[in-house]
Amino acid sequence: MSAGTLHFGSPAEIRSLLEGVGYLADDEIATVVFLADRLGKPVLVEGPAGTGKTELAKAVAAMSGVRLIRLQCYEGLDESKVLYEWNYRKQLLRIQVERSVGTGSALGSVPSNTTWSSIEEDIFSEEFLLERPVLEAIRAEEPIVLLVDEIDRVEVETEALLLEVLSDFQVSIPELGTVKARSIPLVFLTSNDTRQLSEALKRRCLYLHLDYPSLERERAIVVEKVPGIELHLAEEIARVVRSLRGIELEKPPSISETLDWARTLVILGIEHVDSKTTRSTLNLLLKYQADIELAAKELALEDT
Amino acid sequence: MLEVLTDFVEELRLGGLPVSPREAIDAAAAIGELPLEDRVGLRAALGATLVKSAEHRAVFGSTFDIYFSGRGTQRIEGKSAVLDEATRRTALRDESASFSDFAMISTQELAALLMSALTSGDEVALGEVARLAVGMYAGIEASRPVGISYYFYRALRGLELDGALAALTDYGQGDRQDELHDITAPLGKLGERLLIEEYERRIEMLRDLIEAEIRRIMVADRGTGALAASLRRTALEDVDFMHATREELSEIRRALFPLARMLAVRLARRRRHRRRGPLDFRATIRGSLSTGGVPVDLRFRTPIPAKPEIIVIADVSGSVAAFARFTLQLVYAIASQFSKVRSFVFVDGIDEVTGIFLHSTSIAEALARVNREADVTHEDGHSDYGHALSVFAERWAKEVTSRTTVIVLGDARNNYHNDRASVLSDIKRRARRVYWLNPEPRAYWGSGDSIMEHYAPYCDGVFECRNLHQLEAFISSLA
């Protein structure tokens, strides 16, 4: 196997590099990123919302100092938004200009055959091509990281298109010929699991399931991201959050909500998260009234 | 290594995971990139290349443990203050005794070690406790045909873990000093709860370690393949709802919510995609300005998608008791995803439970309230689909409109009552779609008092729905 495009030595190296850009990875994450680079395969990242799926791609781009190209998926996304489309407004203007220059009057004359083919060649050139993220990633001169965010939102047809592009890393544009990637980009696909992705796509990818972090990892994240937090407070926060995730909530607290909570507690100058403070700041962690009530009941929090 | 890998992949396939040859090749390539002795890396590499869905991780995990835990050193290496202390104490009693030899220590000493390992949460010490407990209590006999759980419970009984938890939490009341208490003490009642949770987690960890230790000994004894075959689990999506164990049911419940969300997305998307609205003349003209007045882009008004309305009618009688639990969970999951869901449960009477699902904070509460408050018996408490459906038609037929999807969940075992299938045909005429999900194998439909075929003509689709796989197939067929 050839060494990967980004030339990482080992998973441990990736781990420390990621830490350098403020993303605390565990061994599994580091290993999968390492393999993705070595084997030249896309990574499919699945897991609950707010576990740092998108962050991972950003951090990998940041740590290797390469450009991140992002394709945000949504329902109705199609080829012209994924790969390329022709800027037909500009083409139309170009034709009109040609007419007025060629015949001296703007209207009423049919261009001859020779002019037509030259115009055609002209209007289907690079200048009139609108490059979309995936084509941009393939045509990039330097190694890049491509993030396809929330791929579960697109229709099956678009997914098939992405699958085709991501397996060959080439795109053929009828008017221009085939564009082949110079270096294989490191691709991250994220999914919130709103629908099952096709088996073919899954087969093509490495799979990484990002769950909520372990107690130790979450504590480390809090210490890393919240300046001026006391170690014991971070510990308490991580424990309370883990306890909350153990309850069956509509929307368990995500990592970013944990961080919001931690920051708020620091700003408020709170030393310990006892029942009272937790109850009064619970709305930072939980976003549904029903969840808040349930959590207060389950953890026997005192009303303020 | 390659041989082990092929065996491993074969075992995963037997466990129900769809591993393609291509993925097996990827796995081999991935292993090649990593140092051989890196166990964590090996697990991550195999997981990333062979397992492509969260539901399959449980099968993968247990199979991996069987195939790869026995190899290399099992004992967690590292220094442990707790262990050193214990060794010192034992050594005082008997110069020659080595602590790692379990024949030399007494039950009391092990109990003491257990307590200090649990209070410190020291993983090395816990591993040692697991090893000693298996040696002392499990009494593993070579080639005796019993499963892991037999030895597992013997080891647990010997350790008296329940007592240990009680003792630990009692400690909490006193003025014991250790790291964990320092953290939780200032938090008052919340701290107490966190403390208990932490101890429970450590005990859980110990149980896992004990299981791993027994598995290691048995792999050495019987060989990998034989053990894997005796421990094979069914992949979650193929577990029959009617025969699921409690753990499987709770896993299924977790898997239900994404499915309900999928269902919601499916139904909403159909609506949005079906029609384009009428031509938006004004927007078209304005858009044409950039192309010199030529209307290249026709603009349409987007139709406001009508919210899908769902009516779920579920049989909760005894004959489908196991399924009914699942049914209610599904209804709860659906209700949490759609704004307009009305739920009904019936046995021979029928009652609306929409409000109960709406105002319950958890599924457990909802289920308890349905069982307590819903008035579902009319005469004898045996399912009577005919009566239940006609009462439904009488009281709620007006609510069924051309935007409503009706989903009936039940086995269509009518106890030889009148089927009144014409009622269902009335409902079908009013509704957009009528689907019937039946928890019985298709082969049993129509046998005995099952009258599925009487109702089937009045449904847009009748689906066998015994496991997650089939439920998923039903949802996929909607699009």
The geometry of chain B reads as globular
The level 1 CATH classification of the largest domain in chain B is Alpha Beta
Sheet with most strands: strand arrangement of chain A: 2-5-8-1-9
What percent of residues of chain B are in strands? 5-15%
Average pLDDT figure of chain B = 77
- Number of helical segments of chain B? 21
| CATH-assigned homologous superfamily of the largest domain in chain B | von Willebrand factor, type A domain
Rg of Cα set of chain A: 26 Å
Count of extended strands of chain B: 6
Helix content bin of chain A: 40-55%
**Judging from the principal axes of the Cα atoms, what is the shape of chain A?**
elongated
Q: Please tell me the CATH architecture of the largest domain in chain B by its name.
A: 3-Layer(aba) Sandwich
Q: State the distance separating the first and last CA atoms of chain B.
A: 44 Å
Overall residue-averaged pLDDT value of chain A: 85
Count of discrete domains of chain A? 3
> Could you name the ranges of chain A where pLDDT drops below 50 across 5 or more consecutive residues?
none
* Sheet/helix structural class of chain B: alpha/beta
What's the CATH first level of the largest domain in chain A?
Alpha Beta
